[in-house]
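In this section we walk through a basic example: taking a raw amino acid sequence and producing a predicted 3D structure, encoded as discrete structure tokens. The instruction is simple. Fold the sequence below.
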Amino acid sequence: MVHNASAITENGKDMWRSSPFPTGLSRQKSMTFRCMKHNESLIMSESEGELFDLFGLKRENVLQKRIEDIFPKEIADFKKEMYERALNGESLTYESELNGIPFLAAIGPIYDKDGTVSEVYGFCVDLTERVSVETQLAESEQRFRSLMDHNIDALFSLDLEGKFTTVNKACATLSGYSETELLNMTFNPFMLPDRRAVAIDQFKDALKGNSKMYETRIKQKNGETRQIMFTLTPIIVLNKVLGVFGIAKDVTAKREAEKELRETKDLLESVIYHSSDAISVVHLTDFSVKVNPAFEFIYGWSEDELANMTSHILPVVPEDKVAESDRLMTIVKHGGYVKGVETIRLTKSGKRLNVSLSLSPIYGENGEVVALSAISRDITDKKLKEKALKESEEKYRIIAENTTDLVGVVDLEGNVKYVSPSNRLLLGFDPSLYDGKKIQAFFHSDDRPKVRIAMNEMVQTQKPVKFEVRCKHAHGHWVTLEANATPIANDSDQPDSFVVVARDLTERKKTEEMLRKSDKLSVLGQLAAGVAHEIRNPLTSIRGFLQLLQSRASENEDYYEIMLSEIDRINSIVGEFMLLAKPQAMNFTQTDLRQLLRHVISILDTQAILTNVQIYFESEPDLPEIWCVDNQIKQVFVNMLKNAIEAMPTGGSVIINLKREGGYVIASFIDHGCGISEERLPTLGEPFYTTKEKGTGLGLMICYKIVENHHGKILINSKIDEGTTFSILLPIDKNKPVS
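The resulting token sequence is shown next.
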């Protein structure tokens, strides 16, 4: 039973002051006392010992005094209860505290000869040291438990059989088992089969009193393995080993990081050692230098020769580059990086090399720059090649930009990479228009399959190809180009683009066409000369007889006039055939085309009526007269109107429109006949080429010749099943043309 007595009251201080015992008993941290009952009061009859002084008691205030007069009420009541029980024959022990001193008291009855209890005997012992020890022990136990519970390392203890006796939370986390599960098992389940025997030997070695550190792999509850480092220490009490205490740390991540770091280090050292670039590392404190074999090979200095450096500037830096090197070094010393700077470095033999230089800082443990690494690549050959390439490119650029031929570079997908400035001259487009676009988009749709076949052939054979293609001009028409495409091979010797050189064939085509027509005209001229000679003779006879008949006839005088007029026209047409054989003088006169067209309509009106064709004539007012050979222009108009009528064998309408536009008077003959296909339009006007079943093509050819001699043009616009429009453009000249 433990009671804590209250402190002594202020009034009782003098009574509790220590005083020497006269009895001569040895002073000790204990005391003895006796107590007896007198007149229903408990009287202190004896009290001695060192503890008496520690309590601050005085003999005169204690002996023969009642308990309630000696002690404060709370203690007095407690003691009276204890002493009453002792007087009744009980032996008791109790703990209490008096004046701040803890103590243990033992009391018991003193029996008389007759067996009655007359006094109570007591013994007190000072518990101050024990309480202090217990407090320290409790604090130590709390610290130990706190250390166990909050330690990040796994802490455990094992008995002599290897069974866990204590574990902390980190131990449970590491193993995957709960603390309860661990306290009911040994360490064997954690050991991998190949490590179990070694683990048992290590445990036995610890039981022998040896404390050592080990590293191994253990198996967790979920089957995964972890790398741990642990220490086993024997638990020794009174020179006897009672078990083993252990501390385990999970080093799996650390070992993996060390492995990765080791592999990275090995890889880095391998890369540096086998690199073809010169690599050097200069420490800023002692200027020690590390270089790789490539550095020694390129510059000629070995690492041993650079061992006694007194500056971070290596001898590879020429004098004229020292200032530049200092500037770059300063950047790196402040944590900056230098990448790909082209500069000059010096070999041991004095040869100057063009190099690409990169510098990087190397940091120490405190984050300061402790060394510099330099990587330099010899680009001397590259510089020479670049120079040669630049000179070559400059030559070809001058050629490409000044040639009249079109030069272009296109990849295999048809994307334009380059077009020479001559494109403006040939096609009217600025070269920038083609950038990144598909070249096929600028080809005539009919030519694209042909070009695609040629390109495929070039890729397969890797040989140049030639082809003709029509390209769109900025003004809307098509320009025929003769193109030569040559493949460009890449590093794998496979074509990845091709160069196209194209030349305008328009003039050559015209020349060829003129030569072809010239041959036809030559044959036709010889034929026309013979035919004209043979026709003129009978025409002369017919005209003579008509004049004779006219002189004798008294009726139908108009008919004779028409027949004679037509015979004269035939004779004139025959004369035009002679133009094909040799040029003749042309007699230009000012002519009103409206009157000329009305006369032509009157001539062919009968033929139109017979084929159910209506002729409509439209004209702008106040049209100027033009200089022309009226018979020749009349012949052109007759041919045009006749062709329009014959284009509508089942009937229809022909519109003749006369108007002024710009510097021309334009006579248009519009029919609604069968039309002419687009591919046949370019050949109209050639001799012996016609759309008529029984035609010769000479009529339209003569029309072209006549209009050309008048410095005019013939334009044709036609669509199948919609009709055709022939427009004759005759220039308006103020002065009479030269015959």
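Looking at the output, two observations stand out. DSSP finds 18 helices and 28 strands in the chain. Residues 1-28 have pLDDT under 50 and may be disordered. In the next section we compare this with other chains.
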